[in-house]
Design a protein that fits this description.
Elements lengths: L3 H8 L24 H9 L4 E6 L2 E5 L23 E6 L2 E7 L6 H4 L6 E4 L1 H4 L5 H19 L10 E4 L4 E4 L5 E2 L4 E10 L2 E6 L11 E4 L6 H13 L3 E12 L4 E10 L13 E6 H9 L14 H10 L2
Parallel strand pairs: 1-4, 9-13
Antiparallel strand pairs: 1-2, 2-5, 3-4, 6-7, 7-8, 9-10, 9-11, 10-14, 12-13
Helix pairs in contact: 7-8
The protein binds zinc ion.
The site of zinc ion has 8 residues, from loops.
């Protein structure tokens, strides 16, 4: 779940208790989404701000790590099948996300060379202000949903954008489709002075993290935690406590962090999901947090909620 290429970058970022991609400062102003007159005025206004994405990478300024907002003139280059997605209001200005994916080389075609570039969001989040990362997360998730839902899941015909980007309606059968968010439980299993971490094949050497998995249909969060932990490690879990949650727009997850108390200790790894899972002592985890790699383990960088789960347990 954590890309190899971003780990070193993100470790260099300041460690903060705030979760990356949370804390969006925009007022989402839901009541404006059906206000066609107001929306048309904002889309035409010189003052409105448009955040360009290309192939889901976000436009970032070259001279300093900030989002590069554009004016409405850029809308002529956007993907007309999506249109501008309303993100919210800040400082009395309307903010939108737009998709420039139809362009072959937007940096050249829009004359951006030297002033801004399109950056993968996990990498950009290492240096962007927290509020910018959160806004970009909202935009990325919405544009990705539009790109994947051009056609009706009921009848297969084309769909059209409604409600400023928050609904697509079928042109044929009128079925309505809404942006989805997929809940994922991510849990630190604890047993006294030990915690259970696992690793997937392909992760950087010695990288271990909290176990995680999608919540299934008809399942509570507590049930998902117990099922996932048992499936992946054979460990039985009793008490489950909520920790924090984190938007994870790759493409549409909500990471729901939990602490889970183990009621057994013998680990049986499901090799189809994990390469390894084992217990680590609090001392080893504290060493790794102080100096990545010490204690024989790397834990995920602060961009991931797993880092904060592990840190909160180790320092408790
Ligand atoms: Zn339909």
């Amino acid at each position: 779940m954590w890309l190899r290429v971003t780990c070193r970058l993100v470790y260099a970022a300041r460690v903060s208790s705030a979760l990356v991609f949370a804390g969006n400062p925009l007022d989402r102003a839901n009541h404006r989404r059906r206000d066609a007159t107001w929306l048309a005025a904002q889309l035409a206004s010189e003052a409105s701000r448009f955040l360009p994405f290309w192939r889901l990478n976000v436009l970032v300024k070259a001279e300093k790590p900030e989002l590069a907002w554009a004016t409405h003139a850029i809308c002529s280059a956007q993907d007309a099948r999506t249109g501008a997605v309303f993100l919210g209001i800040r400082d009395q200005l309307a903010h939108f996300a737009i998709d420039l994916t139809p362009l072959h080389d937007p940096v050249t075609e829009l004359g951006l060379a030297g002033s801004a570039s399109f950056v993968e969001l996990r990498a950009a989040a290492a240096t962007l202000p927290a509020s910018d990362s959160a806004i970009a997360a909202q935009g990325r998730q919405m544009l990705d949903w539009h790109a994947r839902h051009r056609f009706c899941a009921v009848c297969g015909r084309a769909t059209s954008v409604k409600e400023a980007g928050y609904m697509r309606e079928c042109d044929e059968c009128d079925a309505q489709h809404f942006p989805r968010t997929d809940p994922v439980v991510i849990m630190l299993v604890e047993s006294g002075d030990r915690c259970l971490l696992g690793r997937q094949a392909g992760w950087p050497a010695q990288m271990y993290s909290a176990l995680a998995g999608f919540v299934e249909a008809g399942e509570s969060l507590e049930e998902a935690v117990r099922r996932e932990v048992h499936e992946e490690s054979g460990i039985a879990v009793g008490e489950v406590r909520y920790f924090k949650s984190q938007p994870w727009p790759f493409p549409s997850s909500l990471m729901i962090g939990c602490m889970a108390r183990a009621e057994s200790s013998e680990v049986t790894v499901d090799k189809s999901e994990l390469e390894d899972a084992r217990w680590f002592t609090r001392a080893d985890i504290l060493k790794s947090l102080a100096q990545p790699g010490a204690g024989g383990v790397f834990v995920p960088p602060p961009v991931a909620i797993a880092h904060h789960l592990i840190r909160a347990w180790a320092e408790s």
